Predict the structure.
Amino acid sequence: MRRILIGDIFAAVQMLNCIDRENAQHELDLALYKAHCADKIRKRSGKASLDCGDGTLQAACIRSGTTEFINFGNQRDIQNIGIVCDAILRWKNRTGC
């Protein structure tokens, strides 16, 4: 997967704002996996994946079709930032990427 930037984290938080808490971990893991696969496709073919984007987490989250603006005064959004960061750390520890 490409390097994770702040825009990737914000896109993942926006995605979480539009889904149920029960599905949050699954959706984050799926977005991370899609970004990883898309990056492999991009490296091999030299083109972005039509299904999963260009290998960024942001592209994988936006392609899920669920986005909402972040309000940093909202407790839920701040908690979602923590959830996203935890998911990224778990992904990196599990995959070694």
Summary: The chain has four helices and no strands. The radius of gyration is 13 Å. The CA atoms of residues 79 and 92 lie 20 Å apart.
